[in-house]
Write a structure and sequence with these properties.
The protein is of the alpha+beta class. The chain contains 3 helices and 8 strands; from the N terminus they run H-E-E-E-E-E-E-E-H-E-H. The strands form 2 sheets. A 5-stranded antiparallel sheet has the order 1-2-3-6-7, with helices on both faces. The chain binds nickel (II) ion (NI).
């Protein structure tokens, strides 16, 4: 186990464009991916991008079988995605609340594509090609944004639909559903 500290909003490294991974199947890559999964699991996140632990590489992980923080959401297969590309499969979009491990304790309403296809590679360099909808598609879009230095707070549908989770829950604006971090 090697849980790494997660960078928080304000750290300029979160705004950098991450670099493509060029070497697969290396001990360094395996070690980094292990650290990412350990860090995401410890924080009960639905996803994590390498830049969030200070590594400027195009690597994201996401997925969970069951997560106490998202009791209403279906499981998402645990996935490692390297050098990802996300393509919308329709013009359909939906608004939902998001959080981020780099913006602890807060949520904001964000519009995302409802159906996407994502492609990329696993640690051995094998191709991944998946179609996803709803929460699964949202998590992928959120994590891949991190690789381009974009935090969800830059994508709020309305600056007033953003705040502390406890306050939003207390005022019934927020359900526990649909909050990837
Ligand atoms: Ni995030």
């Amino acid at each position: 186990m090697a849980i790494q500290p997660i960078l928080r909003l304000g750290d300029p490294r979160l705004f950098n464009i991450a670099c493509e991974v060029s070497e697969f199947d290396t001990p360094e890559l395996e070690h980094l991916v292990e650290d990412m999964f350990d860090t995401m699991t410890a924080a009960e996140g639905a996803g994590l991008a390498a830049p969030q632990i200070g590594i400027g590489l195009r690597i994201v992980i996401f997925g969970f079988d069951r997560n106490p923080r998202y009791p209403d959401n279906d499981a998402i297969p645990k996935t490692l995605l390297i050098n990802p590309k996300v393509t919308p499969l329709s013009d359909e979009r939906e608004d939902d609340w998001e959080g981020c491990l780099s913006v602890p304790g807060m949520r904001g309403l964000v519009s995302r594509h409802k159906h996407v296809r994502y492609t990329g590679f696993d640690a051995s360099g094998a191709t991944i090609d998946v179609e996803a909808s709803g929460f699964h598609a949202r998590v992928v879009q959120h994590e891949c944004d991190h690789l381009d230095g974009i935090i969800y707070t830059q994508r709020l549908t309305d600056p007033l639909k953003f705040g502390f989770t406890e306050e939003l829950l207390g005022s019934d604006q927020l359900s526990t559903k649909g909050c990837p971090e």
